[in-house]
Structure formats: C-alpha cells, structure tokens
C-alpha cells in the first residue's frame, strides 16, 4: 500500500480561523479522502503555530498569557474542524513537549554539522510574517512585500544558520525533482530566488522569550519558523523513542506533500529543505503552493478587516456547500475572489439544479414506471460519456486540479439531463411496449448519477452517500474495486422517496435579507456602521448571520482598547469634529477624529480615558486622518463618552 503524508500549514493562534485557513485544510482533507479511496495508507496532519513575537504581542495586547490565547484559539480550530468533518489523523501544537523534543533534536544535528554561528544582525522585521526582509525586498517606506505594512528596524545578536552553504544543493534538488515545488510557475520563482544568492539566516531571537530556548545559547529563543517547520516531523515522533510513524511516513518512499498558501512558499521550499539537508534528513516530495482568496481584490487580512468568517456560511448553507464552492471556484494555484453572490450561483447551478433535480427526477420516474423500484434492465446510453468523465476526474484529482475534476462531473450531470430530454421517458411511462426502452434510459441516467455521487465522496462526505442511498447504490469503501467503472448499479431494488438534499436558494431574496439584517445591526452598532461606509463590495460581511446575531469570532474581529486622551482640539471649520491625540499603549500616540465637538469642550477631555476601536482602517475626516474611533452612547442626539469605571493602563483590551 503506498504511503502518503499530507500536511496543512500550522496556523498562528493570534487570530481566529477564516476562509483562507479553512481552504488550505479543506484541500488537504479532500486529497486525504481521495487518496484513501484510491487505496493509499494516508497520514494527514494539521495543527497550530503558537510561539513567536506575533503571539506574544497579541497576548500582551489582550492582557493574557500567550498560552491562554493559544488554548482559546485552538479550541475554536478543534470545533471548526469537527464541524467541517476534517479527517486529520493528528493535530500538533508547537507548545507540546513532543514537538519541543523534535525541535531540539533537529537543532542539535544542525549545530553538530557546524551550521550555526553567532553574529550581530540588523534588518527590517515584519512581525506578521515573522521574518526579516532585505532592503531590496521591501516596498517603498520600508513596508513588508506581503502585508504592505511598515516593518520594524531591529538590531540584535543572533545565531545564524549557514543557509548560503546549501544554495547549490537546493538548486540541484529543484533541477532533479521539478515536482518538489508545484505549480510550475512557483518552482521558477523559487529557483530564481535561490539563484540570486542566499544569505545566512538568523535563527534565534534575544528579544522574544515566548518560544523554545536554543540549547547552548543562553538567552536565545529559537526562531519561530525553524520551530514551526519542524512540526511536520515532530508530529510523527521525530525526537522521541516511538518514531514508527516517522519511519513510515517520512523516511519511506511514499509521498510527503505540504499544502501551503503562496505567502509561505519560501519558508517551505527554501529554508525547510535547507534545514533538512543540514540535519541529513529526507526532504518532502512536494510543496504545493495555492493562491489566495481575495475580498474586494485584496488578500483577506484581519488588519484590513476584510476576512470572511465561516459562521454565517455554515449556518446558512451547510459545510458541504462551502467545500464544493471553494474547490470548484478557485483554479487551484491561482487567486480567486470570494463573494456570496458567486457562492449562491454555484450552489444553485451545480448542487440544487444539476445534482438535486436530476436525482429527484430519475428516482421519481423510476418509482412511477417500475412499482417504486429501480429499472429492471440495464442500458448503456451514457456509458461513453460517463467513462470519459471518470477518467478526466481521476486525472485531475491526481494532480490536485479540483476545479477541473468538478467541472468534468458537472459536464456529465448536464449530459444526463440532455439525455433525458432527448429520450423523453416521461412520455412513455404508460405504454407497456416501451417499458424496455424506458428501463434502459432511466437505468443509464441513474448509473451515470451513481458515478458522479461516488466521485463526489471526497468532496461531499455526507451528501454523496445520501445520493447513493437514494438510488439504491452501495457506498464504496474504495475506488480500487471498480466503484468508478460503468455498470455497478443493480436492478429492481425498491427505492424510497427522495428528500431534497440541496434546496434552491433565492439569490435576490437572500442577498436582500442579508443586507436588511446588516443594516438593522449597523443601526444598533455604530462601529459596524462606520465600517460599512468605509468598505466597498457586494454581499454580506463576515458579521452578518441569521437573526442579525454575530458570533464571538465577529466580536473579536473588532479590537477595542482603553486609550488616554493626551490632547484635544477642534478641527478647523467644523463645530462637530474634535482631533484627539490618544495613548493606546502603543509605541506612539494615535490621532482619532471624533464627532464630540457639540457635547464636549476639548479642554475637558484631556487626561480622560475612553474606549477606542483600534483596528479601523484610517479615514480622512475634514482633511485630518483618523486612526480609530471613540465609542460613545448617543442619547437625544448627543454623544456620551464611554470610559472604564476606574483607571486602567492605556492599551488595556476591552472584551
Ligand atoms: O503562516 N487565501 O500561519 P497563518 C487562501 N504559522 N489561503 C489563506 C488565506 C487566503 N486569503 N489566508 C490564509 C502561518 N491562508 C504560519 C505557518 S507552517 C510551518 C507555519 C492560509 O495562520 C494559507 O495556507 O498566517 C496560508 O499559507 C496560511 O493560511 C497562513 O496561515
């Protein structure tokens, strides 16, 4: 049995999961399910990345210990993966002792090789990427090329890894194994990056203590990426005495596939193999970098506030519709835009119409014609089309081209409909002399649908078996014994009535209802209303859900902090706006423009503590840039400021 090891990135615990994280995990889950059906022995890993400056900082902002933050977010991941029926075999947390053991072991091997040395390091660091960038890589204004936000200049004594020593070995590996980085365009990017020349990599921090201490280097913490990447082997038991999984899935000759977003390709395709080469351990066989889900043409990001949270989608459409949409609408490897409108269109056309209608039509006709049972005879009317669709489906699934695989199934669904329209079995039901022909036509339609539903098992894990049950077919445990070959459906078996699996959604009504709910909520919540004005784009935001309720994820998306007003002055030519300079516990004061001028004299506000929304996009009000919003209750048209009951340190998180 071939062994296949499949991994997702391990996700940072500074934020709750959104559609991007779900996407990577769904892709890995689909491949895991597919490979199991194809007979492989699969091991599927996911988990969380819990150390580093980013987590330390977020926890401090929330006034809690990093581990408390991690525990809370990890719980959410567990719930969500259960809801989405993910079939991972293990979930690794980088704070677990078994992971530490693996990291310590790989670092010891790298050190033994003479690949670590101490030097002074200066550079620009992006906390959100947890990486240093060279001057050449930075955007204008020393901004991160991924997040486009300013990087901090940092200078400290670090331990370096001799990355430059592995430049030639890496290039040789890419040449000998072009499948190491997929898709091909990404391989070229990686080759170019390495060929330009690799600099040694700083692999320790002295200013961050939330991490694994670097043995032999007092006061140094292991760089979070060296720590995190090792999860792929520590989870298999590398570094412990019980390392059978490691021997089976990392040392054997099976596939070892890392699915990652394109943002973290360099870490997986350059740094990780270099660490492994240094430690003389096997490399992964493939690093597959997929594209980004965009909202309003921007990568989803918490700081922009454009992330799609999963709750309302799961509540309104169910998790399988989400699985289908993200796999069908993103060409794997490229970016794609997420929209509720496209989601509903895809759901209605492929699931409600092509599958749902075809299923109910075929079962109803068969029951009417044959005393509530499957047709008594087989027919080959759709054999050629179905065989071609199955061959295409398998070919595409082998190379992770999910959208193409699903397109092949949709095409077969449409061929079933056209076949029925051409043969009009409904006109022949009462004519005994045509019963044979009706049986052959309906059986062929049902058999083609059986193949579609079987092929959908890795994508619709609950609904596909229901389709098979509705047409009296078996749910196969494997594809290897002809489950995807023509001819498997029986004859004459009694059928039950079909329950609607994918009720049609009225797109206009849904979008109108969603908008109305959102407006009602915005009217109650000024922060959300302000956000709405600033955001463009159609469909609902992550905050909308049935009954106008928001989830805890939505709430935590709004960062509320206590700030102390340092100075306040009127904005020229406005009797309403005040320009406030506030201390929100950050490295510098921020300017917030607030509509308090009619209710408060500026002098009366200085030194007062207020609550600000700290993660609003900047906006210009009467020519003054405002970075946040001050919360006030409006009574009789007058704002009344909200303040903590007693003084607390500036920057304290409100939740
Ligand atoms: O980078 N579209 O964790 P992370 C598609 N801890 N995928 C997206 C996405 C989007 N808009 N946004 C996020 C880290 N992702 C590190 C990884 S691995 C040893 C350490 C997915 O929480 C995508 O897979 O920032 C991306 O690479 C990953 O989430 C980043 O998750």
State which percent range the strand residues make up: 15-25%
Flag low-confidence runs.
527-547
Which of globular, elongated, flat, extended, rod-shaped describes the shape?
A: flat
How many beta-strand elements? Answer: 25
Question: What structural class do you assign from the helix and strand content?
Answer: alpha/beta
Helix content: 40-55%
Rounded mean pLDDT is: 91
Strand order of the largest sheet: 3-2-1-11-12-7
Put simply, the count of helices is 21
Q: What is the radius of gyration?
A: 29 Å
Span of the ends, CA to CA: 51 Å
Question: Sheet with the most strands?
Answer: 6 strands, parallel
Question: What hetero molecules are in the model?
Answer: ligand ME8
Question: What does this entry look like structurally?
Answer:
The protein is an alpha/beta fold and 655 residues long. The chain contains 21 helices and 25 strands. Strands 3-2-1-11-12-7 form a six-stranded parallel beta sheet, with helices on both faces. Strands 16, 17, 18, 19, 22 and 25 form a six-stranded antiparallel beta sheet that branches. Helix 10 (265-278) links the parallel strand 11 (255-261) and strand 12. Helix 13 (340-369) packs across helix 15 (402-423) and helix 13 (340-369) packs antiparallel against helix 16 (435-455). It is flat. The model is unreliable at 527-547 (pLDDT under 50). Bound molecules: ligand ME8. Ligand ME8 binds at residues 9-12, 20-21, 23-24, 49, 228-229, 231, 260-261, 263-264, 292-293, 299-300.
């Amino acid at each position: 049995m071939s062994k296949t090891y499949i991994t997702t990135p391990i996700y940072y615990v500074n934020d709750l999961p959104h559609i991007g994280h779900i996407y990577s995990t769904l892709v890995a889950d689909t491949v895991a399910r597919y490979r199991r059906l194809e007979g492989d022995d699969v091991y599927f890993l996911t988990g969380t990345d819990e150390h580093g400056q980013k987590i330390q900082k977020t926890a401090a902002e929330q006034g809690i210990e990093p581990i408390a933050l991690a525990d809370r977010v990890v719980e959410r991941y567990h719930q969500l993966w259960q809801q989405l029926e993910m079939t991972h075999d293990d979930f690794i947390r980088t704070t677990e002792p078994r992971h530490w053991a693996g990291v310590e072991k790989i670092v010891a091997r790298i050190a033994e090789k003479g690949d670590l040395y101490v030097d002074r390091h200066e550079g620009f660091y992006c906390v959100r990427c947890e990486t240093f960038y060279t001057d050449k890589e930075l955007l204008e204004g020393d901004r991160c090329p991924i997040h486009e936000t300013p990087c901090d200049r940092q200078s400290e004594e670090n331990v370096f890894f001799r990355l430059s020593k592995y430049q030639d070995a890496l290039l040789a590996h890419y040449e000998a194994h072009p499948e190491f980085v997929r898709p091909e365009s990404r391989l070229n990017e990686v080759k170019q990056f390495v060929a330009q020349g690799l600099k040694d990599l700083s692999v320790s921090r002295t200013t961050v203590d939330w991490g694994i201490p670097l043995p032999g280097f007092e006061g140094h913490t292991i760089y979070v990426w060296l720590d995190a990447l090792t999860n792929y082997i520590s989870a298999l038991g590398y570094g412990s005495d019980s390392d059978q999984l490691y021997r089976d899935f990392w040392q054997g000759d099976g596939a070892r596939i890392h699915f990652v977003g394109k943002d973290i390709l360099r870490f997986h395709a350059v740094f990780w193999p270099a660490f492994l080469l240094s430690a003389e351990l096997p490399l992964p066989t493939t690093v597959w970098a997929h594209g980004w889900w965009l909202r309003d043409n921007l990568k989803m990001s918490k700081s922009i506030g454009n992330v799609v949270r999963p709750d309302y989608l799961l509540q309104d459409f169910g998790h399988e519709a989400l699985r289908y949409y993200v796999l069908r609408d993103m060409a794997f490897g490229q970016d794609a835009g997420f929209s509720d409108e496209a989601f509903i269109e895809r759901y209605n056309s492929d699931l409600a119409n092509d599958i749902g209608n075809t299923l109910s039509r075929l079962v109803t006709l068969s029951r009417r014609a044959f005393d509530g049972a499957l047709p008594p005879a087989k027919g080959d009317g759709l054999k050629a089309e179905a065989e071609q669709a199955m061959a295409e489906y398998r070919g595409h699934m082998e190379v992770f081209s999910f959208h193409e695989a699903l397109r092949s199934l949709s095409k077969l669904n449409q061929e079933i409909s056209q076949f029925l329209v051409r043969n009009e079995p409904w006109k022949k039901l009462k004519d005994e002399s045509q019963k044979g022909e009706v049986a052959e036509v309906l059986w062929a339609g049902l058999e083609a649908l059986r193949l579609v539903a079987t092929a959908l098992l890795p994508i619709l894990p609950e609904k596909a078996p229901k389709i098979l049950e509705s047409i009296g077919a078996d749910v196969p445990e494997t594809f290897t014994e002809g489950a995807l070959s023509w001819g498997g459906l029986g004859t004459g078996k009694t059928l039950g009535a079909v329950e609607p699996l994918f009720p049609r959604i009225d797109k206009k009504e849904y979008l109108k209802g969603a908008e109305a709910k959102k407006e009602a909520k915005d009217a109650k919540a000024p922060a959300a209303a302000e956000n709405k004005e600033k955001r463009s784009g159609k469909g609902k935001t992550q905050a909308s859900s049935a009954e106008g309720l928001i989830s805890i994820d939505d709430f935590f998306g709004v960062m509320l902090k206590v700030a102390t007003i340092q100075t306040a002055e009127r904005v020229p030519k406005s009797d309403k706006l005040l320009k406030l300079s506030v201390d929100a516990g950050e490295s510098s004061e921020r300017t917030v423009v607030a509509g308090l001028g009619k209710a408060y004299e500026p002098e009366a506000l200085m030194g007062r503590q207020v609550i600000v929304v700290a993660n609003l996009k900047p906006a210009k009000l009467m020519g003054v840039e405002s970075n946040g919003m001050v919360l006030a209750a409006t009574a009789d048209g007058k704002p009344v400021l909200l303040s903590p009951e007693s003084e607390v340190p500036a920057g304290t998180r409100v939740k």
